[in-house]
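G., the chain you wanted modeled:
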Amino acid sequence: MIDEALRAELLRRMDKDQEARLDEESDRFPEVDAENLPWLKRLVAERGWPGSSLVGVDGAHAMWLLVQHADTDPAFQRHCLGLLTAAVEAGEASPADQAYLTDRVLLHEGEPQVYGTQLTRRGGRWVPDDLRDPDGVDERRAAVGIPPLAEVLARFAGRSVPAARLKCSLCDAWTPFEPPEVGETVTVTCTGCAREMTIIGPPRRA
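Predicted structure as tokens:
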């Protein structure tokens, strides 16, 4: 039987998550993620992973999305990956969602991703970040119902990289900047007080 109250809460939180992330004028998504994390941990501790028979297909997908964005607690994401994997095996969750969380967890742990779902900007274009066995990636993606990697990259090709914003610790002014690429650094000059701040890009992987 569907728990409509829990399903509605998952969908509400997912909508709030997406609203915060899609609004380029907003910097609220870390706040939204921080609000969701303790709630998610309580839910998992008390009820386990809410599968589709409990919260519907859309509610189960919302649960995955919220955990996917719980990046401040990689250990919790790893724990949830085990629960999600069991849910997929029981027909209670999406294999595609499991693939996305798998890649997220592996990259957090310094390991190459399996399905190429996590993209990064390198050399002015979008590419999968640290991908294991690139030649076999489309076969692995097909097995979980994800489109071929080239198809996804083609959709991203015309997409500009949104400017990030940095808050100055001295004057609280927000300054837009272009995030550095792998192995690079950029210097950001505060628009409020002219303080210079250095941003270090992701490290190069061995």
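The chain has a mean pLDDT of 87.

Shout if anything looks off.
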